[in-house]
Amino acid sequence: MKPLAEPSTAGLIGCVDPAGACLKPLAEWAADRGAAALCEEGAFRVWGWAGDENRIHRLRSPFLCGLLSGTLYETPGGAGDAPCPPRENTVAEAYGRDGPSSLFRLAGQFSAFLWDPRRRELMLFRD
To answer: How would you classify the pairing of strands 82-84 and 64-74?
Structure first.
């Protein structure tokens, strides 16, 4: 009997594990299911599956490691929303300058998974 639809896996899975006890088993679990590590910084790791590459953008700077999934919009001079690729430094620079509050000023449809190694804080954000 043929299945009605081929099973597919999508999305992201991650963890922060300072002791390291969960990272290895979770990495093996993710690899067995076809996921690849998209972001790693010490105790923080996020895995994702193929098919989401165009919507997932890595964020990396001395003060931020993470992923942004979705679309950002720019509003130059209030002229209306134009889709733009979320450049790595757009979010990272704003975060470095203004901290977590910078996320509330981003416009678009996105979610962000951010690890601040200086503060040892994990932030999950959805517009």
So the answer is: antiparallel
